[in-house]
Amino acid sequence: MMPEKWLAIVLLLLVGMFCNALGAFVGVNIGTDVSNLPSASVLVGILKAHQITHVRLYDADAHMLNALANTGIEVVVGVTNEEVLGIGQSPSTAATWINRNVAAYVPSTNITAIAVGSEVLTSIPHAAPVLVPAMNYLHKALVASNLNFQIKVSAPQSLDIIPRPFPPSTATFNSTWNSTIYQMLQFLKNTNSYFMLNAYPYYGYTNGDGIFPIDYALFRSLPSVKQIVDPNTLFHYESMLDAMVDAAYYSVQAFNFSVVPVVVTESGWPWLGGANEPDATVENAETFNSNLIRRVLNNSGPPSQPDIPINTYIYELLNEDKRSGPVSERNWGVFLTNGTAVYPLSWSTSLQATGNSSTVFCVAKEGADSDDLEKGLNWACGQSQVNCTAIQEGQPCYSPNTYQNHASYAYNDYYQKMRSGGGTCDFRGTATTTTADPSYGSCIFSGSSNSSSSGGTSPSSAFAPESLSSRSPTLQVPRLGVLIPAMLLILISL
Question: Coil, helix or strand for 461?
């Protein structure tokens, strides 16, 4: 292998290591059942314009893989359901597939995973016997190409393979698939891969016969009397997605496997539905996806695995108007084919320090108690003289209508005005500073230089409500220091 190619591969691996070290990510699925589908270059332009760093393709389209070259965007390529049978019966077919659809594009195109089929066990159950063999053959072909450390192999499955996902602690996989799922988990464990799960709170809510409130599905805070609790573990679930992911973790544990990380390969909310689909609205879709991004990018996991982020791919980039079924099936897209956003959505709304390090914002902590946030919000918009006009109904920062969102805006407005006089970003433990700009759409958060952010004193009673408590988990900040010496040593050796 030429030294130049070695260098390219090393750099690509280092980029992957840094991306992983930075923690959680939100990506997007790109379906192609679209009339007037934009060109690959236009689609990649949309991704770049909105700083979308991860994509999942349902096939290995050459135009898309070429257009994604040299962008740094992490790519999951898909083996179609039609291809699974052939690959699962022939190692040579698998090797040909890898050579043609993966090896031919790396390292220029940052392919990091292969998704084998789409919900094979529930959509084409007759292919179940060859699913894991297909995964094995593809992995062996990656080994032969020296790509197995860079590229993982997994197979997205529907939550439907878990018949009773709540309470999560008693969830188990459908016993019909026990043999296949056991083999799959063994493969994932042996190859240090992860379990791909398609999880849709929209369906969990609409098919739930009113068991769960819609606020639970939309990541909105619930009053203490309505909080969702697993009776066996006493874990509180702030969102339905957290519970769905935990159901997968407990189902894996039921096979006596240690932790296999779960990545949500599909989740989202439709923005238009038929007469019998009243919950498919623009407002709900915006609320769900905005809060999903906030939830994922706080870099924490579900209650049973708090240290494993819930990395998620939103379904989907464009409306697939050629799909059959109810109206909602054709209206999950975040963008129109001309690149216009269906609703404002910030793909970088997070508490991660990925923004401009010279600017500091104050936001409500993810997971802060909703009652404490309500008290902090009321105080900020009352006696502290914060301008809360922007979070009133009809104003740019009203949606999503959550204590988390509204408190973040009010806390930040207070902090920017009062920090020079001793006000801090604390609010009895419900707030934190961040260099990630929480602005989204036309909702703009003012920022301030962090040159004077150190050494702040706790505010007196004039600067924060005394009734707030400090019950809130501490955010974990990833550490990159150990990677820097390794990178330097590798580059020097070259």
Answer: coil
